[in-house]
Amino acid sequence: MDLKLPHLGEGADSGTVVNLFVKEGDTVTKDQPILELENEKAVATIPSTAAGTVTQIFVKAGDKIKVGQRILSLGESGAGPAVPTANPEPDPVSSRERIIQTPSPEQVPVALEDEFPEAVSESKSGTAPAAAPSIRKLARDLGIDLARVRGSARGGRIMMEDVRAYIQKLQRLAAGPRAAAIAGAPATKPPPEQIDFTKWGPISKTPLSPLRKVIAHRMAESWSTTPRVTQFDEADITALMALRKKYAAAYDQKGARLTLTSFALKVVVDTLKQHPIFNASLDEVAQAIVLKQYYHIGMAVDTEAGLIVPVIRDVDKKNLIELSRELEELAGKARERKVSVEELKGGTFTISNQGGIGSGQFTPIVNKPEVAILGLGRGAMKAVVRDNQIEARLMLPMGLSYDHRVIDGGAAARFMVDLVQGFQNFKEEDVMIAGVLGQRSVAAADPLQ
Length: 449
Known about the structure:
CATH 2.40.50.100, 4-stranded antiparallel β-sheet, 3 domains, alpha+beta, globular, Dihydrolipoamide Transferase, 449 residues
């Protein structure tokens, strides 16, 4: 039997093979890991759905494969590698890709590839996509190929809003070149220049990893589509760090590491509640601002493979010790590339703390579809005037980048003022309250109480 790539989760229909754990002739059991697949910024292990002997492998490390594509063939235990027949049965996925060849970069405008990937990669042949009869009739009347429409319902079923969104994309595509021509600008980006760096000296070259390609695409998309402004300020965290020093040992005893980022999570959520526009997203299709009633905070984690942003959910419902534990756990999973795709989605605001590295002020890039991100630098002792006296205070540099389509400068300034106050006036009782640990309440004598 053939083992095919199973459904990877909502919105995920492909991935890149990172490692293969089997070779032809190996015997595998059901649920045994057969390969690692990188999707988005997560690496998942794909298990075998049956037992048998590997007779043929159809993929290799570095291949990008889709849901339903063959991975390998299994025969009965003890069977050797399969001998190719004169007319092997074609792989439905790969044969369809051979028939409908994706145009080369020279043939397709870059703008089309970036903004409308389904317009150049979907096939008009094969199984008809799932959709209601009324939607099929509408598509026929309008001359729309439903194979090019990405369905948002369960199982990829196409809904009316999916057809509407597709039509709006086609309208923007049609208007784009004309608008560029009117403005006197080129309709497409020029192809990148190929430079021979060996003319000036020896070099080494490392191919971009799948993760680095995802990061590059996301950052370029955010930079080119989001009019970003960055607001800078400093917060006096002298008292806050005194609280951390006072309670750090007690938190360690409870298996939680109390850090500045732990405090930042609480401060940020309190400030977001005062300024809900920062906990929003812009729905570009409906032309509406989506105000979210939940607080899922993304934490930028520096890993050897690149930047990964896992999300801590319902931060407003958790106390400081719970946040400290979850922060440490998620950061560890991110560094080990064990974080799941779902743990990377659904964020409403992001925090990037470079203080541990030693950086000062910087301008973080907004993590779409969020509208704001907070960058924290390394706290430094500075001479500060307080009550007409010069004192040495520990000052935290901060940079708030925001989407100017949604947020105005005045709103950003007010957000930053309240954020600074949150760091400078952090209540000690919020550090002391540990809530319930496991199945018991913390005793009154507990230092965290």
